[in-house]
Every structure is written in C-alpha cells, then in structure tokens.
Amino acid sequence: GAVVSQHPSRVICKSGTSVKIECRSLDFQATTMFWYRQFPKQSLMLMATSNEGSKATYEQGVEKDKFLINHASLTLSTLTVTSAHPEDSSFYICSVGTTMFYNEQFFGPGTRLTVL
Amino acid sequence: RKEVEQDPGPFNVPEGATVAFNCTYSNSASQSFFWYRQDCRKEPKLLMSVYSSGNEDGRFTAQLNRASQYISLLIRDSKLSDSATYLCVVNVLPGGFKTIFGAGTRLFVKA
Fold it and tell me: Could B44 and A104 be called an inter-chain contact, meaning their C-beta atoms sit closer than 8 Å?
C-alpha cells in the first residue's frame, strides 16, 4: 500500500499561534488526500478533502478560513491551523486513497496538537 | 441515527476466545466496506476489505450482508496482540466519494 508520512508528529503551541502540518505521499502520486481529526475516545471525523491543484472541499461545520489546506503537488498536502485555541487540540491524521472504486485508505502516523 | 454504528464495547476476552464485532450502516448507496484496526494513539491501519461473498484472512473473517446493511468481523483464537480498537469503515460513492468511520469497538484480550 501507499506510504504516508506526516510532520510534525507532535506539536505544542500557545493559543493564538498558527501551526502547519505536512502530509506526504512517499510512493504514490496522490491527486486526493483527506484530513481527519480525532478527539479522545471518539472516531475519526473527516475535515476536508484535499485536491491537487484546486481548492479543498470542507465538511459541514469545518471553518475553511481556520483550517487552511494547500495541495500544491501530487505528494504534499499541508493543513494550517490558524490562530489555534485549546479546543483545537486533537489528533490530526491525513490519508491517501489508492484506488478509484474500493478506495482503501492509507493513513499517515498522525500529528498530535496541543494548544495551551 | 449515526451513518455507521458499531457495538459500543469494550470487549474483554481471554486469550484463545472467539469474538465477533457487528456494524450496521444506513446509506444503501454504500459501495465498499473495510475493517481497520487502531492502536492507542496511533493511526488506523487497514485490517481487511469486506466483500459480498465474505472473506477470510487467517484468524479473521469478514462478512457483508447488503440486504440487512450489516457487516461483521470474527476473530478466532484471540491473541494478546489483537487488543486494539476495531473500526468499521464505509465508502459512499454516489454524489462524491465519502468515507464514514464507525466509532470503533475496543477489544482487550487478557492472558
């Protein structure tokens, strides 16, 4: 399957700062990547679908101006949490879908964000 | 009603036990189905895809019943290393690809 990396794996920041998370598809050209958020003891919630060369598609309730997504190449998508607040503290995971129909997804190792 | 519902768990079983997880989905347009495993504070990893004919991979057997909109996962001869959260995942294709995760069922296998 596809190998996906994320950086950083863990970040602690002060309230009001912006944090950028990178998601890289190491062995697969990904036209589409997905960004998820997972709060403790809850399931993954899709935040947005990142499309290479075009604007991301955000799920209902996710503020596009707060969670900026850039997918400038087939191997890199970035998520920037702007003006982070403690309630943004979560586990952020990206994924790559590898087939058109069955759409198995391969996930990055995740980024744990803690906003103080 | 949630789009994908799983047994709330947790399941506590002894080594060697057989354990079954159940999952139901509400969207009849769902196209593909998976079981993922997620260890604590880690990303989900694909355990197996679920096909209409049912499929088996070693100690793991997955079943799909489209008429009932029901998916199951059976683990035989449980190992300590099977302890994890098992996520039922459904892809809905018409209208745009969308992946929906169940809340997961936590499994504890004890010696």
Answer: no
Q: Can you give the pLDDT at residue A98?
A: 65
Question: Among A45, A102, A110, whose Cβ lies nearest the Cβ of B43?
Answer: A110
First to last CA, chain A: 36
> Please, are residues B21 and B105 in contact by the beta-carbon 8 Å criterion?
yes
pLDDT score recorded for residue B61 = 97
Contacts of A79-82 spanning 24+ positions with Cβ under 8 A: A79/A20, A79/A21, A79/A23, A79/A35, A79/A47, A80/A18, A80/A19, A80/A20, A80/A21, A81/A18, A81/A19, A81/A20, A81/A21, A81/A113, A82/A18
A107 with B44: Cβ contact below 8 A: yes
Chain A closest-CA separation from residue B85 CA (Å): 10
Contact A95, A36 (CB under 8 A): yes
Report CB contact under 8 Å: B34, A34: no
Tokens 């789009």 found at: B3
- pLDDT-derived band of residue B10, with 50, 70 and 90 as boundaries? very high
